[in-house]
Amino acid sequence: MIDLFGRLAWGELKLFEFFHAPSIDTAVASGAAWMAVLGVLAVMAWLTVARRWGWLWSEWLTSVDHKKIGIMYMVIGFVMMARGVFEGIVMRAHQTTALDGGVLSNTHWAELFSTHGTVMIFFVAMPFITGFMNYLIPLQIGARDMAFPVLNQISLGLTTTGAALVMISLVVGAFETGGWTAYPPFTGADFDPGPGPDYWVWAIALSGFGSMFSGMNFAVTIYKMRAPGMSFMKMPVFTWTALCTSILLIFALPPLTVACLMQALDRLAGFHFFTNDLGGNMMNYANLFWMFGHPEVYILVLPAYGIFSELTSMFAAKRLYGYTSLVIATMSIAVISFCVWLHHFFTMGNSATINAAFGIATGIIAIPTGVKVYVWMATLWGGRIRMTTPMVYMTGFFILFVIGGLSGIILANPAINWQVHNTQFIVAHFHNVLLPGLIFGIFAGVHIWFPKAFGFRLDERAGKITALLWIVGFCLTFLPLYLVGLMGYPRRSAAFDNPDFVPIMIVCMIGACLLMAAFAGLFVTLWISIRNRDALAVPLGDPWDGRTLEWATSAPPPPWNFAMIPHVNERDAFAREKADGQPYVTPERYEDVHLPPNTAAGMVVMIATTAFGFAMTWWIWWLAVASFAGMVLWYVVHSFREHPEVTIPASTVARHHKAWVEAASLNPGVTRDHENDTRNRGRAATDMVVAS
Amino acid sequence: MSSARHLGAAYRCALLFALLFAPSLAVAEVQGFLTPFGAIARVQRTELIWATAITMIAILPVLVGTPLILWWYRRDNTRATYRPQWHFNTKLEILMWGVPTIIIVALSVWLTQAVFRIDPYRDIDAEMAEGMDFEITGPPVPVDVVGLDWKWLFIYPEENIASVGELVLPVGRPADMRLTTDTVMQSFMAPGLAGQIYTMAGMVTQLSMIADSPGTTVGQNTQYNGTGFPAQRAPVRALSTEDYADWVETARGAPALDAETYGVLAQSGDIAKARTDLGREGDGPLVFSLAAPRLFDRVVARYRSGEPVPPEAQPGSPVYDPESASLPEVPQ
Ligand code: HEM
Ligand SMILES: [Cu+2]
Ligand SMILES: [Cu+2]
């Protein structure tokens, strides 16, 4: 028996903790576990009742369509974000009561900041940006799919594995308590022999492979599959940022994965990479982790910059100012981001020369970042700005992000950093760049491309209210933390003894409630929009007077994206076609389209690696061997099978395309004055022409 | 010069920024980063104000300009000129790249000077005192700091005393600190006097600080190290020479910090627990006279023997057992 379940015992089930020892603390722990379990059961029940299992399997889980994979990434992101936001609120509630104590036990508090950070970075932010890149890259470069569609699905499988392991830790056992950075030796076997750090190690190591594969896939796709005529300097800006992010993914993820595996060796095999004794040295871990960790912030924020670039020019109805500057800035950020990692530990006793060098390097990276902000301002200058929901997010981003930049500059100075490192100042700083920088960008992007993906717009009024809630909620929740940070309150601290903090914590709590409402607002917006989907429908595919190729398709686009691969002569290819009055044309001849067939590869990887990670966490060796061997075997067997392509006959392509072109031609087109009413069916009377 | 005027404006902004933090300035009993009473921390605060002020030059245009642009170029403003094809301007480009570059150059020069000036490894000596305009009134006080779960042990090798949970320093004399930990990594910070430095097992880091008037700040751990983390806060008190001498005298008469006592102290727990375990009445910080010399070096040596240290012999481990965790001897 013991061997069958490794070190797993019934007592590890957190569902019943509350019933054994009722308290607020255990209520939160058990409640969360029940929520996870019931959530999964509810989804399964719905799938059964609605007879949707087959649909889920054949339309989604086994699909290799980059658009569907992108949407699935977004779904994972939102599901995990529900957890992350909820944990954030619980932490804020705890700190509100934390004058000499707090409602939660210190252990649960530590688990909360650790899971919250891990979830938000690896299973919210990463899926969001990967989802966007998946959806947009092929459409923007005029391609039909990724370079490696099956690998793409496998990446999704590995990301899901990581998310699943973190979710399982909510129900079985406990997560680690060393934060999202999981610094040894605190997370080493000598100090925490339990399953927590193992959950972290395997969730991060396995999903790390997925992210690295994604990076390779995107980079090759962008290098090799651009439409004829699209030279690098004619690529849309989002694609540029995606390229830089992909390069970062390829080079930044391996140090993290290696650091995780070294931790695993320390913990399982008695190695001494990061232990206190036998020459182990945690400083190596800090270096490896941040060699990933700093590029990671640019991995996350560059695609968001790309979204902001696209949307400023779109909603200012104007060409992007300073394309070349923006590209140079993006590339330099990508390169320099590998030269600054040490600023995460100016306090480790480095020599003054080293500290100064890395402080300066960090300052240098602020130059291209500043340029970007100015470029966006110049893009707005001389435009005709429509204050749509994405622009509301953009405004919030502008104002708040520069404050985050200011605190970044402050942190880059080692002399000051010694005072604010590891305090709430840093908590304020990274939320300041991650929420307005990344999350606002993602939500703005969702508003823009949701109509492309699903064929109808999102409700503007609900969207704007939600955006405002995010902005105000953010300000109240996080800006005050700068102050408590300067007053010396350490981060990750379950309690404080300074009564002056109490009113500040109450303000933060109010802000967190607004953020909760803002998060709910996203779903209210979705709900309202689904109910009005006929009025909001934009089947013709160009609701915002878009400029790049993805708008030159129907909404949603057909599985093959483009009836014929476009030829590109200019940067904003579709804007040019519209300005020339030639946007919707049919070719003389259509050709068959070949697409890769569905495969279960991603699901096999997901199930096998989840079992493997769980087995390694709980020392269930037979399962670890079986799942790993099973996966390898499946691949070996599978590689002998023929892989027929799916052929879409030219006639089908032609029928779809002609129907769309005809509908577009019959539609008179809508000027930007009626962008948000029912007249907007996705045919734009372009502003540039109307104006001149 | 217009740049000087800019600086002036920026300085005013910084003052405004500082005023925002006024509530914290009002709290005087426990001093922090914003109300320093030592030269090092004062330099750090000055850096904060200047870095903020200078960066404002790059940021203010965005904060002010964005709302203006959004308002003036709104779609229904017929008076605004619409220039859909405008996409490049050489002068603007030079400005966009130039201004941030100049700011970063300025900040970098500044930063480098500060980093060398108050490098935690730099001894606080006459040269530094002259450069930074403060006074040294006596010889340095060596202090060895050991991070334990969840309390700080301060050893005064020259005075042959030790204190747990309180660091007492004489005003005007530099504290010459060596730091390590006898468990997981920690970070020692005394915001009113100096910034922080990590403490790592088997390794020694350094930190220097000096108080120029009597005062209290909090010596805290900022690196999460377990459930007792928030409690790991030790007052750092700077006393006048006489008061300091009195304190040292009291400590000399306190019970000895021998191997056995150290083993008990190293157990995970706060000071109250240590008091109970050691059978010492009362509450608050503990003082000891020093029985074994070179305690600090022996703590460091524990992890450098070239032999594995089993978890039972590692303080902070859930299975730590003082009986099996004697400190190694070190050559005298
Ligand atoms: C939506 C509302 C959010 C709330 C209320 C919230 C709240 C918090 C709180 C209270 C902490 C602990 C601070 C401490 O150490 O004392 C924290 C940590 C953290 N948060 Fe958030 N957060 C939110 C959103 C986000 C987002 C969107 C991200 C990233 C995309 C994020 C990333 C992190 C990270 C990385 C940590 C550090 C965890 C660690 O210490 O290891 N948070 N957050
Ligand atoms: Cu960084
Ligand atoms: Cu070290």
TrEMBL record, chain A:
Locate the Cytochrome oxidase subunit I profile domain: which residues?
A: 51-569
| GO cellular component terms, semicolon-separated | plasma membrane
Entries under InterPro entries matching the protein: Cyt_c_oxase-like_su1_dom (IPR023616), Cyt_c_oxase-like_su1_sf (IPR036927), Cyt_C_Oxase_1 (IPR000883)
TM annotation in the entry:
32-50, 71-93, 113-136, 156-175, 199-225, 237-265, 285-308, 320-344, 356-379, 391-413, 433-455, 467-489, 501-528, 595-613
GO MF annotations in UniProt: cytochrome bo3 ubiquinol oxidase activity; cytochrome-c oxidase activity; heme binding; metal ion binding
UniProt keyword list:
Copper, Electron transport, Heme, Iron, Membrane, Metal-binding, Respiratory chain, Transmembrane, Transmembrane helix, Transport
Query: Is Metal-binding among the key words of this record?
Result: yes
What name does this protein carry? Answer: Cytochrome-c oxidase
Q: Which organism is it from?
A: Roseivivax marinus
